[in-house]
Specification:
The chain is 21% helix and 32% strand. The chain has 263 residues and is an alpha/beta fold. It has a single domain, classed as Nitrilase/N-carbamoyl-D-aminoacid amidohydrolase. The strands form 4 sheets. Strands 5-4-3-2-1-14 form a 6-stranded mixed β-sheet. Strand 3 and strand 4 form a beta hairpin. Helix 5 packs parallel to helix 6. It binds acetamide. The site of acetamide has 7 residues, from loops.
């Protein structure tokens, strides 16, 4: 199976230009799975709830159509972040799309910094989607620092963790190596680059998007300051075997019985 990410430099509020950047980066790409960054169409540094409301979309609107188009063009499953509206509620979400179908939507559980002012926290547990014979789980950016998100997805059978991101802290790439080793899953962290200054806030996004194997090997690593397309070939079935030797199984050996550890 071929998996891929694109590392982009979105311009705040410029959806059409951001869509065009994605099309330029993927113009010759054919792949089974493609991950885009968090909030790839809008940019990140919102300054009011009015802005998220204005740029937010219900499933089935502009960004959905774009991702359906991208899925058709690349031939693959696509996972990408977007500002999701549900009634008056706004979530920082990621959509998984295959061809013309929305397979599912994940709402970021752990909001970072002032995201807490502009978005509502996710109100549904993370879920694994079985698409074209592979189990894909989604988490978004800052979820990386809460190991129970990846664990929850692994316990549900995830083989690949799709991880749209807009990273500003330097630790995630190393942490994802640990997440993959402790859960025997593949991960694809699709980050963005560039600086975004709006109002009193300025964020420098760290790039270095990464594909990590079930053994913690880095299969693709992007530069910190350039747009990039990263690709790796994997065997997703490696993620189904949790045995590290004849005596140890990463999931079955957890000491959760008898209140020794929290489940
Ligand atoms: C982040 O969660 N976008 C840092």
């Amino acid at each position: 199976m071929q998996i891929a990410y694109i590392q982009t430099f979105p311009l705040f509020g410029e959806k059409e230009m951001n869509f065009r950047e994605v099309l330029n980066l993927t113009c010759t790409l054919k792949t089974d799975l493609l991950i885009l960054p968090e909030l790839f169409a809008t940019g990140y540094t919102f300054a009011s709830k009015e802005e998220t409301t204005e740029m937010g979309e219900f499933p089935g609107e502009e960004t959905t159509h774009f991702l359906q188009l991208l899925s058709g063009k690349t031939g693959g499953i696509v996972v990408a972040g977007f500002v999701e509206k549900e009634g008056d509620t706004i979530y920082n979400s990621a959509m998984i799309v295959a061809d013309s179908e929305i397979i599912g939507i994940y709402r970021k559980l752990h909001l970072f910094n002032k995201e807490k002012l502009w978005f509502s926290p996710g109100n549904k547990p993370p879920k694994v989607y079985r698409v074209r014979g592979v189990n894909i789980g989604i988490m978004i950016c800052f979820d990386w620092i809460f190991p129970e998100v990846t664990r929850s997805l692994a316990l549900q059978g995830a083989q690949i963790i799709a991880h749209p991101s807009n990273l500003v802290m330097p630790h995630c790439q190393a942490a994802m190596v640990t997440r993959c080793i402790e859960n025997r899953v593949f991960s694809i962290t699709a980050n963005r680059i560039g600086t975004e200054k709006r109002g009193e806030d300025e964020f420098i996004f760290t790039g270095m998007s990464q594909i990590t194997s079930t053994r913690g090997e880095i299969l693709s690593s992007a530069p910190g300051d350039k747009t990039y397309v990263g690709i790796a070939r994997i065997d997703p079935f490696q993620a189904l075997n949790k045995k590290i030797n004849p005596y140890n199984d990463l999931l079955a050996d957890r000491r959760i019985q008898g209140n020794l550890l929290i489940d």
